Amino acid sequence: MQHDLVAAGEPGRQEVLATGTEDPTAPPRPQVERDPALDAARVGCVIAVVCIHILMVTLTADPASGELRSVLVPTRQSWYWWATWIFQIMPLFFVVGGASAAGAWRRRRAEGMESAEYVRERALRLVQPAALLWCAFALGAGAALAAGVGPELVTFALSGMGMALWFLAAYLICQAVTPAFLALHERMGWVWCWVLLSCTVAVDILPITTGEPWWGLLNMVFVWPLVQQLGFFRADGWFAARSRLTLVALAAAGYALLGVCVASGDYAPDMLTNLNPPTVCMVLLGFSQASLLEVASPALARLMRAPAARAVAHVVGTRAMTIYLWHLPVVVAVMAAWFFAGGHDPVPGSAAWWLLRIPLGLVCWVVVLLVATALRRGETASVEPWGARPLSGTAVFLAVVCGVVPPLVEIVTWLNMPLVVAGALGAVLAVVVLRSGQVHPEGGQTRGVGSGPPSSRGALRGPRAGGHGDIDRGHTPAKRR
């Protein structure tokens, strides 16, 4: 099947039939204006995550035993807890993703796409590059063990490289529930948010009352989809309709409630601890960040007009998912190479240690960008099915489960050899299932908006014109000022 079919939502292009000819009856596609503030926020989040993890990874020798150990230096600083209130930006990531997902699904829904077909395409955008990472972990760890590297050292390395995998589970869940939760959002508005918030608080109570923290993993299906709902409100223009003073007051109220939660003693004061399992603190932080994002939107839009900012957005944005997936393996590898090569090993947290982060951080970024450029094809790979076989919504659901479970388990067990193998098998199986066919509309007829299948409209090998990668794309709704 041809790969020159246009992607849904691409501005300025007309529908193309499966034969490669334009449908003369298809109306011109509306021009979709991008939201530069969302682009800036998305790229800023990716850059912040990489920089923070560079600071978090320090390999040093234990003074007493000489054994290799990892030190999370920032967590030892007195200022760490309040710094996380500023730099814990993962809720903002889901707000941005929600705003983009709302526009993407509404366009596809208007074209007649089935919700399960939308989930199939969006899941593939995550699972295909993730499968490459899981397989690399499995092959690399297996080769290390075969070469005589001790299993303890292999597990130690894997645990550091896999710290960010939880995001795959959370984001896949959010993509899977987008059609249903957006429909509930359109029908119920803030009432649906209160329902999700009630579920979040109920789950938070379980670890508090039972003493078992992993009950909190149930909040993976409540917290992050709830934060994503805030992105839906941004897409609708709800935040844009408020004055700056109101938005600042809303953000302050969110932080104040966050302070109340921490003061109760039931929640940790640092927002990294509240990240996994996620708690209501992430919701409050996300609400404040969504409000402040709207306050900063005019400034971010002006920033994105600068050539340098656009260049950074292009370089990072077109590789965003690949950068996110591969940055920790690269950072761990760079830090390990420095340590084993006998590089300077200052006392963690000392002035010399902080100064050393500058050159090491630059090296990490160079290698991350090189790796992301080399592996970017996995991020931009086609989601077009390999055949015309009809795929059921149940099959899509089970494939998503295969992609969600291993990174979800990683939160509890950390990454280890058995989990790496399970993750590789699950991701590959998910890709095979999701690429094996497509979900047809009711009646089993292949439609055309033109008449190309829904998956063919997303079959561009690269990002859409003017886009910044395919984690999610933000667009300015008509009612946004």
UniProtKB/TrEMBL annotation:
<feature type="transmembrane region" description="Helical">
    <location>
        <begin position="277"/>
        <end position="301"/>
    </location>
</feature>
<keyword id="KW-1133">Transmembrane helix</keyword>
<feature type="transmembrane region" description="Helical">
    <location>
        <begin position="214"/>
        <end position="233"/>
    </location>
</feature>
<feature type="region of interest" description="Disordered">
    <location>
        <begin position="442"/>
        <end position="481"/>
    </location>
</feature>
<dbReference type="Pfam" id="PF01757">
    <property type="entry name" value="Acyl_transf_3"/>
</dbReference>
<dbReference type="InterPro" id="IPR002656">
    <property type="entry name" value="Acyl_transf_3_dom"/>
</dbReference>
<feature type="transmembrane region" description="Helical">
    <location>
        <begin position="245"/>
        <end position="265"/>
    </location>
</feature>
<feature type="transmembrane region" description="Helical">
    <location>
        <begin position="79"/>
        <end position="105"/>
    </location>
</feature>
<feature type="transmembrane region" description="Helical">
    <location>
        <begin position="415"/>
        <end position="434"/>
    </location>
</feature>
<feature type="transmembrane region" description="Helical">
    <location>
        <begin position="189"/>
        <end position="208"/>
    </location>
</feature>
<feature type="transmembrane region" description="Helical">
    <location>
        <begin position="387"/>
        <end position="409"/>
    </location>
</feature>
<keyword id="KW-0812">Transmembrane</keyword>
<protein>
    <recommendedName>
        <fullName>Acyltransferase 3 domain-containing protein</fullName>
    </recommendedName>
</protein>
<feature type="transmembrane region" description="Helical">
    <location>
        <begin position="353"/>
        <end position="375"/>
    </location>
</feature>
<keyword id="KW-0472">Membrane</keyword>
<feature type="transmembrane region" description="Helical">
    <location>
        <begin position="153"/>
        <end position="177"/>
    </location>
</feature>
<feature type="transmembrane region" description="Helical">
    <location>
        <begin position="126"/>
        <end position="147"/>
    </location>
</feature>
<feature type="domain" description="Acyltransferase 3">
    <location>
        <begin position="36"/>
        <end position="369"/>
    </location>
</feature>
<feature type="transmembrane region" description="Helical">
    <location>
        <begin position="40"/>
        <end position="59"/>
    </location>
</feature>
<dbReference type="GO" id="GO:0016747">
    <property type="term" value="F:acyltransferase activity, transferring groups other than amino-acyl groups"/>
</dbReference>
<feature type="region of interest" description="Disordered">
    <location>
        <begin position="1"/>
        <end position="34"/>
    </location>
</feature>
<feature type="transmembrane region" description="Helical">
    <location>
        <begin position="322"/>
        <end position="341"/>
    </location>
</feature>
